[in-house]
Amino acid sequence: MSNAAFLWMVNQGIELGLVTLCLILLRVILRRTAPRVFSYLLWCTLPVTVLCDLLLLMKPELSVQRPVQMYFTSPLEMKESYFLFLKPIWMAGSMVVLVVLFLSYFQFRRCLIGSIR
Predict the structure, then answer these.
(1) Which of the residues 8, 19, 65, 112 has the least number of beta carbons within 10 Å of its own beta carbon?
(2) Residue 96's Cα: distance from chain center in Å?
(3) CA 18 and chain centroid, separation
(4) Which residues share a beta bridge with 69?
(5) pLDDT of res. 100
């Protein structure tokens, strides 16, 4: 994984975390006054945010001499030492989340064994 791709994922995580917190607050505020349809429509902003950032991230470089080239740009400038420190932490956190998801899946599946249709 290149540095630019890792930095993009860090930025996306921060941005989507803030958007999610705002959506949760709006959902709590609108819970009693607005219909549920508006609450569900609010959650559509998360995929739109990811798609917009991804489209803005890939900037085609048009030139007569060279073909179209796509490259990653990173809005967050970090030193190499920070990158070397954060990458293992991020990967370990991802592995922990993956293990927890698998364990909860198997626990849920075990609960469903004795259930009746």
Answers:
(1) 65
(2) 16
(3) 11
(4) 61
(5) 95
Q: Is 74 in contact with 5 (CB distance < 8 Å)? A: no
Rounded distance, CA 57 to CA 29, Å?
33
Alpha helices in 31-60 (DSSP H): 36-42, 45-57
Beta bridge partners of 61: 69
At which residue do the structure tokens 């959902």 appear?
A: 27
In this predicted model, what pLDDT tens digit does every residue of 4-48 receive, in sequence order? 777 777 777 888 888 889 888 888 888 888 887 887 888 888 888
Query: Which tokens sit at 100?
Result: 């927890």
User: Which amino acid does the sequence have at 66?
Assistant: R
The label of the residue with tokens 């030193």 reads 79
8 A C-beta contact, residue 46 and residue 23: yes
Question: Looking up tokens 């249709």, which residue turns up?
Answer: 117
